[in-house]
Amino acid sequence: MNNNENKPYKLSVSILDADLAHLEDEIRKVEPYADFLQIDVMDGHFVQNISFGIPIVKTIKKITSTPLEAHLMIQQPEKYIKNFVDAGSDCVIIHYESETSTDILDILRNIKEYKARTGLAINPDTPVKKIINFLKNIDLLLLMSVFPGFGGQKFIKETYKKIKDIKKIIKSHNYKVEVEVDGGVGLNNASKLLKSGVDILVVGSAIYKANNVNEAVKAFSSIKI
Ligand code: DX5
Prior knowledge:
Layout: E1 10-14, H1 23-30, E2 36-42, H2 54-63, E3 68-73, H3 81-87, E4 91-95, H4 104-113, E5 117-122, E6 140-144, H5 159-173, E7 178-182, H6 190-195, E8 200-203, H7 205-208, H8 213-220
Parallel strand pairs: 1-2, 1-8, 2-3, 3-4, 4-5, 5-6, 6-7, 7-8
The protein binds D-xylitol-5-phosphate.
């Protein structure tokens, strides 16, 4: 349970830039305000970085009841869906751009079969029109507002138009898809993102690299729209 059940948006805190030597403490700081924790899984192939994987999901699941989003920035995600769900992921997000040996649609259906929330992510250079046909099969569309691989990057402004375009399509078809934005989200752009129609803000370094993590996460949970 977090302190802000009634706010009109959700906050997903990325642990990528948390102090991993004190991960439990870092999670306790954000727990009261985070609707989700996002675990950025990177394989060094889909992105030029290697972060963490299934063991860290298992570990975090043991220490918090905050729902976990596994953001799979990996090739061949279809090989690992069950592992991430069994490890405790409440939501599994795969990338449209990942190399896969099966259709994206089959992978999305597989995530649903395992009773996890189903997320699809697209990079900044992937047009919205590429994923329209998947909208009826997902719970969550993650719009990357940076090129994935690292926290602390600069927000790509073209994301605002993508948000508005996709929200129009979701509304016109009455799809039940939440729009999440990830990358370069800060107190300087959060309100504009929410006004543009974002349902879930992913925030990493603006919280964990702040001078005061507690104050930063509190600020992100009370953004004026
Ligand atoms: C990119 C990662 C980051 C992370 C949060 O590969 O997915 O976007 O979640 O990044 P910042 O630090 O920009 O909030």
